[in-house]
Amino acid sequence: MSDGTLAITRLSGLANPTRFVALAGRMLPWLWGVTLALLAVGLFMALTAPDDYQQGSTVHIMYIHVPSAWLAMLCYTLMTASSIGTLVWRHPLADVAAKAAAPIGAVFTFTALVTGALWGRPTWGTYWVWDARLTSFLILFIMYLGLIALVRAIDDPSKSARVAAVLTVVGFINIPIIKFSVDWWNTLHQSSSVLTMQGSQIAPSLLWPLLVMALAFTMLFFTLHVVAMRTEIWRRRVTALRRQAARQAR
Amino acid sequence: MNDDAFVLAAYLVTAFAVMALVGFVFLDQRGRRRELAELEAMGIRRRSARRRDGEGTAP
C-alpha cells in the first residue's frame, strides 16, 4: 500500500462516528484550554490597543465584529463542503458536521450584524443601510435560520440531510457576493483592509490584536463544533436505540 | 450615547450571545448523554457495543 493510500485510509478511519466520539473526548480538554487562553490574550490585546486616529475608541468594535463576520462565512463554507460530502459520498459524518455547524454560524452572523450596527451608528451616522454588504449578510443570517428550521421540520434524518444539503450548496452563491460586494457595488461599508493584494492596510498595533482575536474565535468555533458534532452523533444513537427497543418490545 | 457606550454595548451583546451559545451546546450535550445512560441502564445497547462486550456470541 502506498503512503498516500495509507494516509487516506487512516483519515477515513477517523471519520467513523464511533472513532470520532472517542477522538473528540481526548481532544476537547486541549481545545478548550487553547481557546480560553487565546480569548484571554486576544481580549487583553483588543482592550489595550490604541484608538484609531479617525474612529477613536469605536475601532475596538473591530476586534469582535471582523472575527464574527469571518467565522460566519467560514462556517457556511464548511457547511457547503460537508453538504457536498452528504450529496456525493453520503458520508455519515458529513451531515452531522453540517447540522451541528448551523446554530454556531447563525450566532456568529447575528453578532457580526449587531456589532456592525453598533459600529455604524457613531462612524456612519446610521445603524443600518440597505447596501450590498449589509443586505447580503442579512440574507446569510436568514439562510442559517431557514436551514435550522428546515432540518427540524423533517422527521426523517436522511431526507432532511439531502434537502438541507441541496439548499446549502445553492445558498453558497451568497458567500462570494458578501466577500466582493464592496468591490462590485458602491457601498457604505468599507472595502477589504486586512486581506488585500497590496497586503494589510491596517497599522500593526491594530492588526495584531485583530489576528489574535480572529484565531481565538476560530478556535472557539472549532471547539463548539466538535462538541455539537459529538452531541448530534449521540442524538442519532438515542433515536436508533429507542427504535431498537420498540422493535424488541413488539 | 458616547463612543465608549457603543463599544461596551457591542462587547456585552457578543459576550451574551456567545455565552448563550455555549450554554445551549452544553445543555444539549448533557441531555443526550443522560438519555444514552438511561437507555444503557435499561439494557438497551448498540449491537456493536454488545459484540465488543462478548454478549450474544457463541461460547
UniProtKB/TrEMBL annotation, chain A:
**Any Pfam family the entry gives:** Cytochrom_C_asm
Q: Which domain of life is it from?
A: Bacteria
UniProt-recorded Gene Ontology molecular function terms = heme binding; heme transmembrane transporter activity
Task: Keyword check for rRNA processing, yes or no.
Answer: no
Q: How does it sit in the membrane?
A: Multi-pass membrane protein
Keywords of the record: Cell inner membrane, Cell membrane, Cytochrome c-type biogenesis, Membrane, Transmembrane, Transmembrane helix, Transport
Main localization (coarse): membrane
Residue span, Cytochrome c assembly protein domain: 14-189
Provide GO CC annotations from the record. plasma membrane
Q: Where does this one sit in the cell?
A: Cell inner membrane; Membrane
Q: Which GO terms describe its biological process?
A: cytochrome complex assembly
Q: Show the stretches that span the lipid bilayer.
A: 28-49, 69-89, 101-120, 132-151, 163-182, 202-227
User: What function is annotated for this protein?
Assistant: Required for the export of heme to the periplasm for the biogenesis of c-type cytochromes.
According to its UniProt record, which protein family does this protein belong to? Belongs to the CcmC/CycZ/HelC family.
Its protein name is Heme exporter protein C
Q: Its gene?
A: ccmC
TrEMBL record, chain B:
Q: Does the keyword Membrane apply?
A: yes
The record's section on Pfam families has: CcmD
Q: Which UniProt keywords apply?
A: Cell inner membrane, Cell membrane, Cytochrome c-type biogenesis, Membrane, Transmembrane, Transmembrane helix, Transport
Predominantly, its location class is: membrane
Q: State what this protein does.
A: Required for the export of heme to the periplasm for the biogenesis of c-type cytochromes.
Query: Does the record's keyword annotation contain Membrane?
Result: yes
Any GO BP: heme transport
* Protein name in the entry: Heme exporter protein D
Q: Which parts pass through the membrane?
A: 6-27
Q: Which GO terms describe its cellular component?
A: plasma membrane
Location within or outside the cell? Cell inner membrane
Similarity comment: family membership:
Belongs to the CcmD/CycX/HelD family.
**NCBIfam families linked:** cytochro_ccmD
Membrane disposition = Single-pass membrane protein
User: What is this organism's lineage?
Assistant: Bacteria, Pseudomonadati, Pseudomonadota, Alphaproteobacteria, Hyphomicrobiales
